[in-house]
Each structure stands twice: as structure tokens, then as C-alpha cells.
Amino acid sequence: MSSDLDGGDDDDISPISLILPLEETDINKLSLRRNAVASELLHHFIPSINSNLSIRQLPSQGLSFQLWPAATTLVNLLDDHRSHPQTNPLTPTLTALRQISESPTLKILEIGSGTGLVGIAAAATLGAKVTITDLSHVISNLQLNVEANAGILAANGGCVQVAPLHWGEAIDAELIEQDFDLILASDVVYHDHLYDPLIQTLKGFLLGGGNPKMVFLMAHLRRWKKDSTFFRKARKLFEVEVLHKDPPPPGSRIGVVVYRFAAKQSKKPATGSANQG
Ligand SMILES: C[S@@+](CC[C@H](N)C(=O)[O-])C[C@H]1O[C@@H](n2cnc3c(N)ncnc32)[C@H](O)[C@@H]1O
User: Fold this and answer.
1) Which sequence ranges are marked TM in the entry (predicted)?
2) Which pLDDT score, from 0 to 100, does residue 267 have?
């Protein structure tokens, strides 16, 4: 299989230097200190809607409370899709989903949302109904970030709700019933003990018998050679295709890659000879 899917040979990648979220040079940082927990307010400008999305980060609280590099890639692609749909790599997927969706409003689920920036940007740029999810302890920060952007969401016809979703656990019936068109995620492949639970959750949504046309778009920055194990497992269940590759940042050989996962097409029976004797 193509090295695009596995990310190629990365013996010389330093997990230590790449596990940390990159410094976001295009984001204004304002440090606040509240209840002894340092928080940072990020203002991420989205040119296509001429608005700043505001996100609270709590770096001292762990990796769920920081913006990761692949999230920025997905946000930039969503923004570019709105202003330059003709050349944007997400357009064929989003156009096809809109054509087959029963509603003009796309229904999107984000998993492992972290700060929620990707889901909030998707709702604002696509005018979509988005559910952002993460582990239970992340929910209150997600909710705060949604509320901070309520005006921009309303002005752009977007709507965001928040729910807990733990990979590998039974999916809440309310989430299943929402019949999503699209699942989004960024930087969710990093610890190998999470590969199977993540795949289990994707299986539940993409192959669970709900919407067979549901698609999963995942932005990923490869840090370890072992990441290829996740892709090997995923390819047994899904069609996995590369939609976009960011150029590597200075000093690195690897940039963020955006993948599209979908249910495998069932093989059509050979026409003609077998039935005709
Ligand atoms: C590396 S962070 C990426 C966060 C965000 N997507 C971003 O790109 O900025 C991985 C996210 O996955 C979430 N996560 C980890 N294990 C999870 C699990 N078992 N179920 C649900 N979410 C999980 C973490 O809480 C965290 O928010």
C-alpha cells in the first residue's frame, strides 16, 4: 500500500519534539490567570466569514485543552473551502454529502474535539449543525468555547452542541439517532492504546447500519512509526484516501495530512458469463 497512507519511513522523527502542539503564529495569545489555572484565550481569524473565533486553552490541564497542529490545518481548509470551493480538496466530499443528505444543513460530529475549534469553525463556515465531543472532563471547557462564539455561529447559520463521547464505549443512542453526514477529527492518533477504541467508535458510526454514506475526515500529524498500525487496522475496514498534505513546517520532514475514511464499496458481482452459463 502507498506510503501516503502510512506516512512512509520515519525512523528519524523525534516524538519528543513533535508531541507538543506547535506554536500558532497566526493566533493572538492573551494569558489570563483564574483560580490558579493559567488560561490562554486564542483568537483565530477566519477570513471567509471575516470573524475571529475565540477559544480558551488551559495548557496546564493536559493535552485535551490545547490546540494541536492538525486542528489548524482542518480549520484553514474549511475556511478555504468557503472562499475558494473550486480548488479546495474538501469540496468533492462536501458537495457529494450535500447532494445525498436529506437536509440542506449538514449534520457533523467531531470526535476528540479538545478545544472545539474545528467543530466551531465547521459550523460557522459551512452553516452546519455540529456536535462536538470529548471525554467527560473536557466538556465544560468545550461548552464555554461554544458560548464564546455564539454570536458568530448565529450570524453564519451554524449551530454547535456538546456531548461526551468516549471512544470504544457504547455510543449514546441520542448520538446514533442524529444520523450524521460527516465525522471530523484532528490529531486523534497518538497513543497506541487508543487505536482500537477509536476504530471501534468509527466502526459504530460508519459501518453500524445508520447512514452508509457517512464519511470521516481526519487531519493527522504523524509522530511515530507505530501510527502506521492504526492505518493498517483502519484499511481493513474502510476505504482510506489522502485528500490533502500540508508542506512540512521548517525543520521537519512531515506535514499534516488529511485522510478520508468511508465504508468499503461492496464488490459488484461479475456481470454476464456466470449467470448465462
Ligand atoms: C491530541 S488531542 C487533539 C485535540 C483536538 N482534536 C485538536 O486537534 O486540537 C486528542 C483528543 O482526543 C481526546 N481523547 C483521548 N482519548 C479519548 C477517548 N478514549 N475518547 C474520546 N476522546 C478521547 C482527548 O481528550 C483530546 O481532546
Assistant:
1) none
2) 67
